[in-house]
Amino acid sequence: MRAGEAYPVEVGCGLDVGALAAAALEVGDCALLTDSTVGPLYAGRVRRSLRAAGWRVLETVEVPAGEGSKSLAVYGEVLRRLARAGLMRDGALFALGGGVVGDLGGFVAASYMRGISLVMLPTTLLAMVDSSVGGKTGLDLPEGKNLVGAFLQPRLVAADLGFLESLPRRELSMGLAEVVKMGLLAGGRLFGALQRLAEALAGDAGALEELVLLSVSFKAGVVAEDERERGRRAILNYGHTVGHGLEAASGYGLAHGEAVAAGMVAEALLSRRVFGTDLVGLHERLLREAGLPVRVRGLEAAEVLGAMRRDKKRRGGEHRFVLLREVGRPVWGVEVGEEEALSAVEAVLE
Ligand code: NAD
Ligand code: MG
């Protein structure tokens, strides 16, 4: 499959990363970036595959697992490790890990020596279906998440489903939240494949492969039309307007996938109000099958609205939403008044 600025996206089990990378870009010096959970499990195997295809792996940088590594301090440390290893402008960076390693590695590759080649080797379901495709990279600041970043399209994405065997079930659910979102946005075959959510959550390789392939090609198609998010790419924020509000109001105690799940239910309620189509029960059923909550505890609606108001994507006086006219027919930039937004948020709080 080819995505965005025409880079290959490979999905399969037991991929030969070294050979795939040799086909996508010129073989030479490279470095491997990973985290402290993924590195001990898979870095050795990946290095062997790279070396067998002729790559010179100058350095493996292992950052602590978790969101804390998307920081200026860790970013600076990674740059210095690459410089000390002697990686040059024609080198490549392989990002082996979840969305954190992908976002950090992407920003390193975008900025080190004004830009080097990036290969994404996603190891979480979320990274496979969402963060590794689309070209957004980023770091967090103490002032907020993803406030620093650049657009950089990878030269190759190789999603080896074998990596998912060690992924905790809860992390699978986090990825499935985005899969459900894309199924509702896409309709057609991807929506049909949502019948296999429970199998996917149980680790069924066939179900996971089908959902990953269809999700990635949907996201890649949307992004290819609108790489810099000036128009239709905004549909990928379905569930995220309320979702970000819930996450921020919880002080980021609530996981992103859980916040987006409840956020989609709230936005389905708004869709019903605006378009008269009732997809609320469908949302709740799919999200439960994916192991996700459809309500959130312990938050006040006013705090959530406050956080939504501060969200960087909000313009003017109204709240703007991506809503669903029906499955497969999203509409973006729909303005909704404060009171309607408040009542939709209240409905997903308990
Ligand atoms: P993550 O990278 O923190 O991974 C989650 C946890 O799973 C980590 O502890 C990690 O070490 C562990 N892990 C990863 N792969 C594993 C495996 N195969 N087996 C066992 N454990 C494994 O988080 P994530 O959910 O993958 O990504 C979240 C990040 O992605 C956030 O920072 C978010 O902002 C970013 N994101 C970016 C984009 C984008 O377009 N760039 C899109 C969505 C999310
Ligand atoms: Mg998301």
UniProtKB/TrEMBL annotation:
UniProt: Zn(2+) binding residues: 178, 240, 256
Pathway the protein takes part in: Metabolic intermediate biosynthesis; chorismate biosynthesis; chorismate from D-erythrose 4-phosphate and phosphoenolpyruvate: step 2/7
Species whose genome carries this gene: Rubrobacter xylanophilus (strain DSM 9941 / JCM 11954 / NBRC 16129 / PRD-1)
GO biological process assignments: amino acid biosynthetic process; aromatic amino acid family biosynthetic process; chorismate biosynthetic process
Domain 3-dehydroquinate synthase C-terminal intervals: 175-313
Family under the similarity heading: Belongs to the sugar phosphate cyclases superfamily. Dehydroquinate synthase family.
Protein name: 3-dehydroquinate synthase
Family annotation (SUPFAM superfamilies): Dehydroquinate synthase-like
Compartment(s) of residence: Cytoplasm
Keywords associated with the record: Amino-acid biosynthesis, Aromatic amino acid biosynthesis, Cobalt, Cytoplasm, Lyase, Metal-binding, NAD, Nucleotide-binding, Zinc
Lineage of the organism: Bacteria, Bacillati, Actinomycetota, Rubrobacteria, Rubrobacterales
Chain residues that bind NAD(+): 99-103, 123-124, 136, 145
Known cofactor(s): NAD(+); Co(2+); Zn(2+)
Catalytic activity annotation: 7-phospho-2-dehydro-3-deoxy-D-arabino-heptonate = 3-dehydroquinate + phosphate
Top EC group: lyase
Role, per record: Catalyzes the conversion of 3-deoxy-D-arabino-heptulosonate 7-phosphate (DAHP) to dehydroquinate (DHQ).
